[in-house]
Amino acid sequence: MLGARAAGVGFALIVVAKAMTSVAGTTSSQPRGLHAAGAAAGRDGGSGSPRHRLHRLLAVPGHVPTRVNDVLLLRPDTDGQTESKAKEARNNRHVVFFHGDIQNFQEEMALQPEGAQWLSWSLEQVAFTLGRRFPDRYVWVVRASCMYLNKFSCYNNFVESNMFGAPEHSPYSPESGAFHHLRALLSHGMERANLPNPLQSQGGTDSIPSGFSLTLVGFSKGCVVLNQMVYELGGARADPQMSPFIKCISAMYWLDGGHPGGSETWVTDKQMLRELAASGVSIHAHVTPYEVCDPMRAWVGREHEHFIKTLEEFGACPSKKLHFEDEPPSIENHFRVLQEF
């Protein structure tokens, strides 16, 4: 989560907006479908270049058809067109990324004075960064369903949140929730992108394609989605229709998590963390002084420490790292964790 701390209202603001007085949604004006998106990020090259591998899928529905998210898809790097098709048929490994405040499509950030200075962290650029980090996987960048004042990311389709994106976590429901929305979003996205062996939006073991695996990455505000999944984990693992999907999650990365609520920036409930430790998911927590060393929000650092220690008590071995610990806290270093994790 970015910005100055507004003590009077208990929210964390990125930078006070002087000219913005209305809520701005994020749905693109482009028509629905699959669109090449790399040109906006200034990339070019051959058939395997990022420019030709990055596509934009607009208004992809989730478990509830009216709940949609725009998504960027970066296909894995392949050497040639024929080999590409063969590799795609065999490869079913995916990374899903949830972004933080102020991050948006590049052309939309460029229109906002506060966003323009952070264009190097646009959703397109982050997709390329993740593509280098995970070169053999499909990278999905999920855009928040709304951006209050063009900067506060709200993941209402995954977790109940206020207009600033502060979450209200809830347990697993067989009818709705973060796992249901993510599964359907990926299923519909894979179908729209014409990927081979797509995931089915619902069902048991037979609905999961061979070799399917999933890595989840949350950055800053985007970590609220991962936190909600931890709250749902016990119920999801007990549901025979959802359990096979849960077993495909190989790793979860929390990158400098933060949100404007006054607590639960990191999951601290011991029962929830017991379920996470027992799940076998590889757990990674990368932080910077910007979030965990802020004296105005000292609970964030305490919760992060509790998160790690409790998981270790339950037998998990979370990887952890404090980046840039010898440098002053800064928004730039907050973003740089996306390159360093």
Automatic annotation (TrEMBL):
- Which UniProt keywords are present, listed alphabetically? Signal
Indicate the secretion signal residues: 1-19
Q: Where is this region: Disordered?
A: 25-52
The reply to whether Protein biosynthesis figures as a keyword in the UniProt entry is: no
Q: Which GO terms describe its cellular component?
A: mitochondrion
Entry keyword annotation includes Zinc? no
The domain of life is: Eukaryota
> Could you tell me which PANTHER family the record lists for this protein?
MITOCHONDRIAL PROTEIN C2ORF69, UPF0565 PROTEIN C2ORF69
This protein is called what? Uncharacterized protein
List the top taxonomic levels of the source: Eukaryota, Metazoa, Chordata, Craniata, Vertebrata
